[in-house]
């Protein structure tokens, strides 16, 4: 099992735009038949953080899913307002061992 954490630091003036877009983008992923990521926001730590947490059976499954999702025009449209609000971010790909 692979767990992916995508952490985005958002422009404070665009936090509502970003959270709405995050929800819309994950809804599209669900409509495509994939398991949507959990959407988390900061309680402590760096302000104005949004995180997507998803699970995949393998790295190959992650790659196949990302290729399909990123190539989907409906996803691209839903994701655009989030992308425009992001100042920076990181991705962690972790193997679940227990």
What would you say about this model in short?
The chain is an alpha+beta fold and 98 residues long.
What are the SSEs and their pairings?
Blueprint: E1 2-10, H1 15-31, E2 38-41, E3 49-56, H2 59-70, H3 73-85, E4 86-95
Antiparallel strand pairs: 1-3, 1-4, 2-3
Helix pairs in contact: 1-3
Q: What report would you give on this structure?
A:
The chain has 98 residues and is of the alpha+beta class. The chain has one domain (2-95): Alpha-Beta Plaits (2-Layer Sandwich). Helices cover 43% and strands 32% of the residues. It is built from three helices and four strands. The chain has helices at 15-31, 59-70, 73-85, and strands spanning 2-10, 38-41, 49-56, 86-95. Strands 2-3-1-4 form a four-stranded antiparallel sheet. Strand 2 and strand 3 form a beta hairpin. The N and C termini lie close together (10 Å). The model has no long low-confidence stretch (mean pLDDT 96).
């Amino acid at each position: 099992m692979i767990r992916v954490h995508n952490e985005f630091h958002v422009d404070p003036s665009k936090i509502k735009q970003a959270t709405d877009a995050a929800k819309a983008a994950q809804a599209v992923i669900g409509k495509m038949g994939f398991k949507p990521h959990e959407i988390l926001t900061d309680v402590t730590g760096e302000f104005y953080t949004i995180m997507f947490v998803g699970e995949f059976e393998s790295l190959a499954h992650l790659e196949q899913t990302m290729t399909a999702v990123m190539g989907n025009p409906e996803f691209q449209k839903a994701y655009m307002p989030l992308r425009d609000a992001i100042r920076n971010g990181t991705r962690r790909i972790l193997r679940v061992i227990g």
